[in-house]
Write a structure and sequence with these properties.
11 helices, alpha/beta
Length: 310
């Protein structure tokens, strides 16, 4: 049996897998590595495990960097775990037909027995759109139509929709997953149009450490915009969970991507830094450990223990 997190934990703590090339201490994690890390995550009491959704990164002067296809991994993770929630941070609706994506969601929901968190977004990396043949124009408008279809199928089980970019005529989602309304929908963005869609359709919101400066104090301005969008839409802001990604280095080695300083120190100091996010209204964190290898996940156990002690 895996230990259940203590109720004194001030917010949920998830761990982000290294699904890109060269994210695994300079190497590429294979499925066996990711399965091992998921097993460790459950054993140490993490609340959730997360994957990202990218196809190919191209930066001038650097070797291209790809990633494993996220939904294939998510389905496999659902089959080899039994307690943790499983989330996408975040899946790009532009890469998959929305009605088919809803079908994939319902199936993975079934495999996981209702542990899925559907994080979705409009995407941003033009290089991968072009390389794989997906249109990059009107991304938010395309996202809005996709979200309407996905939300309708997951929540109601059927939809009849004909938009400018997507169609789902007399479409039914059968069979349904274990939760009548499907998984919670988390939208990762901070733009005004996306926040309006969050207020209308979403259950949770996400912001990345590159926007917050990897500190709790950086969450406030973005969270205020979420609350304002809810008020404009006539929705109680408290009904949307706020989630934040955080970079953490639990050991002596502290590789730093793009100049972002990871949260570091003793387990108690790191726990205090994570607890600060609860103080600014976050209910769930997605932690990427540096370096992102099994030893770091094991070294994170004392941080969770310190959090649980209050």
């Amino acid at each position: 049996m895996h230990p259940e997190p203590e109720m004194t934990r001030p917010l949920k703590i998830g761990l982000l897998l290294p699904d890109h090339e060269r994210q695994f201490a300079g190497k590429t994690a294979r499925w066996a590595d990711l399965r091992e890390m998921a097993t460790i995550g459950e054993a140490i009491g993490a609340d959730s495990i997360w994957v990202t959704d990218h196809l190919l990164h191209r930066t001038p002067g650097e070797e291209p960097r790809g990633a494993w296809e996220c939904w294939s991994h998510l389905s496999a993770l659902a089959a080899v775990t039994d307690r943790v929630e499983l989330g996408t941070l975040v899946i790009c609706t532009g890469f998959r037909n929305p009605a088919l994506l809803a079908k994939m969601v319902a199936t993975t929901e079934e495999i996981s027995d209702g542990r899925l968190i559907l994080g979705i977004g409009a995407g941003w990396n033009e290089a991968e759109y072009r390389a794989f043949g997906y249109p990059f124009d009107h991304r938010v408008s395309r996202f809005e139509e996709a979200l309407h279809i996905i939300h309708g199928l997951l929540r109601e089980g059927s939809i009849d929709f004909a938009g400018e970019y997507y169609q789902a005529r007399d479409c039914e989602l059968r069979p349904r997953g274990p939760r009548p309304g499907g998984p919670p929908i988390m939208i990762g963005s901070h733009g005004p149009r996306m926040l309006d869609l969050l207020a209308r359709y979403g259950d949770a919101w996400n912001i990345w450490w590159t926007h917050t400066g990897n500190c709790a104090e950086g969450v406030g301005p973005y969270a205020a915009n979420v609350d304002a969008a809810c008020v404009t839409a006539g929705r109680d802001p408290a009904t949307i969970e706020k989630t934040v990604s955080v970079l953490v280095a639990p050991g002596k080695e502290r590789p730093t991507p793009k100049g972002i300083t990871p949260l570091a120190g003793t387990p108690e100091e790191i726990a205090a830094g994570l607890r600060a996010y609860a103080d600014v209204g976050a209910g769930h964190l997605q932690v990427r450990l540096q370096p992102n290898v099994p030893a770091s996940w094991e070294a994170f156990a004392p941080v969770l223990e310190a959090l649980d002690k209050g």
